[in-house]
């Protein structure tokens, strides 16, 4: 990932997830082996995360291009 794309992703996280009481509103729940995790679309990139409801904490597990992220 180049620096420009990394900045866009950080900006998206800052705008859409930081301080958000309902972070699931921007994502989609995963199924199968990744059940319980959430996916966020950021252009051609995907962010995979776990969400702790008690503290409203988002733990980012992985960020990658959509063609590679689910492998």
From TrEMBL:
<dbReference type="Pfam" id="PF05016">
    <property type="entry name" value="ParE_toxin"/>
</dbReference>
<dbReference type="InterPro" id="IPR007712">
    <property type="entry name" value="RelE/ParE_toxin"/>
</dbReference>
<comment type="similarity">
    <text>Belongs to the RelE toxin family.</text>
</comment>
<dbReference type="InterPro" id="IPR035093">
    <property type="entry name" value="RelE/ParE_toxin_dom_sf"/>
</dbReference>
<keyword id="KW-1277">Toxin-antitoxin system</keyword>
<protein>
    <submittedName>
        <fullName>RelE/StbE replicon stabilization toxin</fullName>
    </submittedName>
</protein>
